[in-house]
Specification:
The structure is a homodimer of 253-residue chains.
Chain A lengths: L11 H10 L7 E2 L1 H8 L3 H14 L2 E3 L5 E3 L1 H7 L3 H21 L2 E8 L2 E8 L14 E3 L4 H8 L3 H8 L13 H14 L2 E4 L7 E9 L2 E10 L6 H23 L2
Antiparallel strand pairs in A: 1-3, 2-3, 4-5, 4-9, 5-6, 7-8, 8-9
Helix pairs in contact in A: 1-2, 2-3, 5-9, 6-8
């Protein structure tokens, strides 16, 4: 029962994945017709696959008949090393950092030429920020991104340097200026941003190391840096060192 | 290319899902042979499906050749309403509650006769607890569970009453005693536990309402309740009311 029900040469497994791939941040709830369209499948094929996915718990049908990602995929996603590894190790240290600063606290890793936010803590008093868990933003315009860029391989740095675009009027778009900043970040051990991603938001970020390797960055977002900068840097460094020590102790392979 | 490569009558989609279903909390990293065994598939079939899942990003191969859940499934899991809905709405209020108490803070929902932990905050100073995000525990032995049980339909309550088992020597196993407590919980608006799930851990929990309906519970875990109880209850209630208000304002459909 393979059936000639999709693009020629496309396996059934690829069609199942195409159905799942129809969902993203901008498409969290889809009707069957929308799924078929976005997955480039005939409606009857999509109908059959969606039925199997729903039965298994990968998708859930809402009362309005739209489909959303189901609890079983949420469960599975929690098993990803990004979640079960550094995120779980960092969580208590992020809490400590949040309790000390009451500012938005981020944990991020590099994904190609972008920064991927793997965790965020923010109370209602914190500055509003654009990042959410799972967001990807440019490396060169965020504090955590600049830390990760400063410690990225040369080819990544070259690729990023060739694509600098202004996001706010404070975004650094001159490769020479950015390159000098990255050198400073490596020397002084932390990065700062001043409204480079979002007007009204500044940040301090520090590397999280596993041995010699920078594996993530911890960042704090505040309305202004001012004279709090040394305190914020110190608090972030203490938390990052705690995470690094725990990583080395083998909590993460 | 359906092929006679698995159990008769099993569709390719079911085989793809069987491969994913091979992973769980106790099996986060699996070799190809282990996947084939756990998914009840011949190794060549498992090999082909794992290859497609890896190409798509659902699975990732580690340097030691074991497979783990990939970043793309983590991304998808974040789209589940349980994550994007109440969890995101509750996050800042949980932060506030954590900052006020420095105790472990839980957000949980009912799933059948169990309590499912959808979020947890705990600093390094908090009491160690057994629950993790994604854990399921008995409704009758945890604070959040008792709140959810107190507001569950009668058939759920009857099912739970018939399966009471001691987890510690303080677990309530007499249906009459539990039933009386559930009535109290509904009257006074909060639940407590004293070492009923874990020795050395007590808790306070309150309902989160969306309109009239109890949709979740917020809980705080502490070493002892003592005279802090009124403060903890008040803090939890303020946070839960904040979540409920935001839910009603339509942040969640």
């Amino acid at each position: 029962m393979a059936g000639n029900t999709g693009k020629p040469g496309q396996s059934v497994a690829e069609r199942v994945l195409a159905v799942l791939g129809a969902f993203d941040r901008g498409h969290r709830a889809l009707t069957l017709t929308e799924i078929a369209h976005r997955a480039d499948l005939p409606v009857p094929t999509a109908h059959r696959l969606v039925g199997e996915l729903e039965k298994w718990g990968a998708l859930t049908r809402r009362p309005d008949n739209a489909f959303v990602i189901g609890r079983r995929l949420w469960d599975l996603g929690l098993l990803a090393p990004i979640q079960s590894g550094i995120r779980e190790v960092a969580a208590p240290f992020m809490q400590d950092l949040y309790a000390a600063t009451l500012a938005t606290v981020h944990l991020a890793v590099r994904e190609g030429t972008q920064v991927l936010y793997v965790d965020r803590l923010s109370g209602r008093a914190s500055v509003p920020v654009v990042s959410r868990v799972g967001s990807r933003l440019p490396l060169y315009a965020t504090g955590v991104g600049k830390v990760l860029l400063a410690h990225a391989p040369d080819d990544v740095r070259r690729a990023v340097m060739s694509e600098l675009r202004p996001i706010t009027r404070h975004t650094i778009v001159a490769p020479g200026v950015l390159d000098k900043q990255l050198r400073q970040i490596r020397q002084q051990g932390y990065a700062t941003t001043v409204e480079e991603m979002t007007l009204g938001a500044c940040s301090v970020a520090v590397p999280v190391r596993n041995g010699d390797r920078v594996v993530a960055a911890l960042g704090i977002v505040v309305p202004t840096l001012g004279r709090n900068r040394p305190t914020l840097v110190a608090a972030a460094q203490v938390a990052a060192q705690g995470v690094g020590r725990t990583l080395q102790d083998g909590a993460l392979r």
